[in-house]
Structure formats: structure tokens, C-alpha cells
Amino acid sequence: MSLPAAPPSQVLSQPSDGIGNSTSSTSSTSNRPRSSGSRGESPSPRLRGPSGSSSSITSSSVTSSSGSSRNSDSRNNRAHSNGGSIKGVGAAAAVAGVSGSNGSRPPVSAVNQDVAHRFTNSGGLYALFLLLHHELCGVHPSKMASSLLTLLNMVLDASPSCKDEVRKVGGLGLLTALMGSLAKSDRVTDIFQLRVRICCSLQYVLEGNQANKLLAREHGLLDPLVTNLKHATSPDASQVSVLDDAEQVTVSTLDLLATTVDDSRGNQAALIAAGGLPLLHDLLMKPNISPTVLLAVVRVFELMVHGCEPAKLAMLGTPALPHLVMLCNNAPASPLAQRVVALCCRLVSVHAQGKAKVLASGVLPLLLKMLHTSPYGAHTSAASQGLYAVTLGDVDLQNEVAAQVRLTS
Predict the structure, then answer these.
(1) Where are the annotated segments for Disordered (predicted)?
(2) Contact 349, 385 (CB under 8 A)
(3) Where are the domains of the chain?
């Protein structure tokens, strides 16, 4: 059965309570049985037609009644066969080249901006999220979901104005529900890296868009992200992730957290209420932590300390900052050292006792070492900014720094 494209006026509303009746738009999928492991219990979006009438597509209507259980291959074949009749999907997918992609952000040139606009204006985003809804109600993650998310990322990268359109068609709620279903303890075997791709999609949608950040918080986005952090900090973290790359999932989660809390007091408070701050601290202090993960954690803290008192105390009232300074002394020209200096600058500027505690962490010798590490580059500029921040208004400290600079030059 061909799935017609929805006009731009058709939208997916916020996820409902999952109670609704099947309609003609889902008649081709209403005779499939529900498996005990189905993600059908997740919230379901609602479709609204141009006439104003609404009909619910629920997981029960998609997966109930008799028949043989579907598998991932049959879903892929069915979605691909329907995709050819969706206006805009075929052309954009051909340009995007969704097969064989990975979870990283694609280059801007991967999708022509004009094609992305035509894809959106012809109802392509609506159709894409409708197909993703079927994946949400499925039994297992599939390659089709991975391809759809990669296509979404390419369209968002080529046309940032599509962020608002994603919100209008209910895409934020669907992506959050899909992330929540994958974050459950019995769904951590994510062989298609869907969590990484969803994090990438949400980064595109939330970046610089306060309305989307607010709606994402209302949909409960922070809960599955905190669950991912719990998996990363658990003692048997290596056993939790079986087939996917645990480090890549953790870094993607931290990058999305950084985007979510950036310049958003509400999201910062929600993250603390969800118990995310102790998990971030534990991840920061974890032995043998990957440099990539450590850099991502420091970036989250850097954005959190601005206007968030508990985050300031987590840095200044614990061994976290001296621990970071000690790590940076071994690599003064590293990106981590630059990020730690930026964090120290924020702590000095936003906390009354920040300067004294930052200096007590041993950051001054680190700044001098960075300043004299050649070849000069970004770390030299970061060290200069750090020295300016910690010596501002303190003549004695300025003279001490000047004397040490003369001795080492």
C-alpha cells in the first residue's frame, strides 16, 4: 500500500497516552501481532488532517490482531517499497546516500540546500517521522531506522530552518520516545548505533533554539540521557554495551547534554533534579577515562557552572578541579588543558570565592607552563586569558606572575 505524503498542515502532536483507534492510514499495518519485547508501549504521536479531524496512530493499533510476527527485514522491505511513493523522500534519499553512513555529523555539502527545502516543503519531514513512528512500535531496531535518522541529520545540516518544522510535526516527542525505548536496560544492544544518530539529530534541532529546548524538557529528554550516563558510570559498563561502541554513545550523550543545558536555566535545573550532576562527577573522576569522554564532560561542566550554583560547588567543593589540573600538567598544549582553563575562567567570574579556590587547585603553574609551551597556538591564547582572569584586580599576584615570567624567559 502506498503511503501518501501529508501536506505541510498535517502535524504530529505531542505524544499521547497510547490509547486510540486505528484508522485507514494504518490499515495495512493493523494486522500484525504484538511481541512481548515490543516498544509499542512508548507514547504515540497523533496525526491531524487538514480538515481539523484527528486520528491516533497508537502502538496497539500498529501491532495488534493476529498473524505472524514481523522482523526487521520485512519492515525494511515494506518501508523501502512505500518510500518510493512518498513525495520528496526518494529524491532526497538519493542525494543523501543514506546507505553505509555512520553516526557522525555529515558535511554540509552532503545535501543540497535547495533539495532540503523542497524535501521539507513537500511533506518529507512528516513522512520521515511517520516511518520512524513505525520503527518506534517495532520489535527490534532496524537498519531502516538508522537510514532515516541519517537522512534527517543531513536535511537538518543543510537547512537549519527545518528545526521549527521538526517541532511542528511532533518530531521532538518521537525522537525522545525512541531514545527512551533504547535506553531501557533490556535494549542496550544497539547494533545500528541508533542512540548516536538520535543524539546527533537532537543536537541539530536544539542548538540555538530555546523553544525546542523547552519542549524537549517537557517530553522528558533528560531521563534517557541520565540513563545513558548511569550505564557509562556503572562498574560493569563494558558488559552493558555488547555490540555498539560504548564510548561513542557516551560522547554523543554528553555532547547532547551540553547543547541542552547551554543558556537554559530550566534544563540545568532539570538535569540536577534527574540526578545527572553526581553521575557527571563520577564519570569525571573515573580511572582510565578516555580523553574524548573527559573532554566532553568538562565541556558540560563549563556550560553548567554559568548560573548553576550546584555545578559550581561540584567543581569548587570537590577534588574534581585539582584532578583536572593534574591531568593537564602532563599535556599543557592539549585541547583538554584549553577546556579546563576556560572552565577556570568561568568559575572565577561567577563565584565570589572562585578565584581563591581556583588558585588553590594549582592552576597558576599550569597557566605558566602553557604560556611557555611551543610552538605557540590556541593553548597560548587560552593561557593568556586564564592569567588575565585570575590576576585581575590583584596587584600582588600580578607582580608574582611577572617575576615568574621573567625568570623562565
Answers:
(1) 1-86
(2) no
(3) 1-171, 319-409
